[in-house]
């Protein structure tokens, strides 16, 4: 949501790393988004095409890898990733569960041409 | 020549960097800051009025109000006795760290031990925009219905405290408290919750105790 500002941040990070490596072009960006991160891939792609124009990132392809969330059951300590059947613990069916991870949003790598 | 460069860097927007700066400014000044969020009409301003009345003159507090238009809420906070600043966002549906940064640079923060930021009425966007506050508080209200935790998980998951306002209306509107609380517990286990009524005063003492304790850094 409000993906323009995060897309601008993606551009800044990629240009900074590319410039440090004396790149002439950025060809691919690899982004990791947690299952619960409220980032919409399509919105980022839409804004990316606009903000990257006339930079060395213009035309670069965005790759999105979704990380499954990890929940932990407070009753039986079972750790799992939620599926389509809801958040309840698959081991003991308890609803007393905690979110351990799932809100990540980071750039893991870029491909450049020097 | 083609190369792969390892980056591994969190994509914090420019907002989050300014939020971190705001937080440093608050900590240096020794002031504790609360970000109050809710749907329009849930009772943000009413809770602020009741809080001001019970905390002054012992705890010096300021209110930063965010609205798309008007000074209505800042005027109410000022009438209750607090130092109040109004931010008109001019259309933006949430306060962001940059707006707060501008506001606090015009305030003498050392004069206050507590600042309440009253966010724009909105259950979605404010959850994604850190302001640099120490605690965030969501106000739910009984007439909104008991399914809101399920429908707005981002907001419910991200807050440090939950006020359930307008409990005086429980006899008059359909609201299943067990269903509501179950949704909250799944998203934010152990979330400190304050059922209260700004209108009748019921339940306000626990809220005042919590916010006072946090204002004193406990």
Structure description:
The complex is a heterodimer of chains A (114) and B (218). In chain A, helix 1 (3-20) crosses helix 2. Chain A is elongated. Chain A has a single domain, classed as hypothetical protein PF0899 fold (2-Layer Sandwich). Chain A has a three-stranded mixed beta sheet with strand order 2-1-6, with helices on one face. Chain A has helices spanning 3-20, 41-51; strands at residues 25-34, 61-67, 70-73, 79-80, 97-101, 105-113. Helices cover 25% and strands 32% of the residues of chain A. The model of chain A has no long low-confidence stretch (mean pLDDT 91). Chain B is an alpha/beta fold. Chain B has a single domain (14-215), classed as P-loop containing nucleotide triphosphate hydrolases (Rossmann fold, 3-Layer(aba) Sandwich), CATH 3.40.50. A seven-stranded parallel beta sheet of chain B has the order 4-3-5-2-6-7-8, with helices on both faces. In chain B, helix 3 (72-80) links the parallel strand 3 and strand 4. In chain B, helix 1 (14-29) runs parallel beside helix 4 and helix 2 (44-55) packs parallel to helix 3. Chain B starts with a strand and ends with a helix. The relative contact order of chain B is 0.18. Chains A and B meet through helix 1, strand 5 and strand 6 of A and strand 1, helix 6 and helix 7 of B.
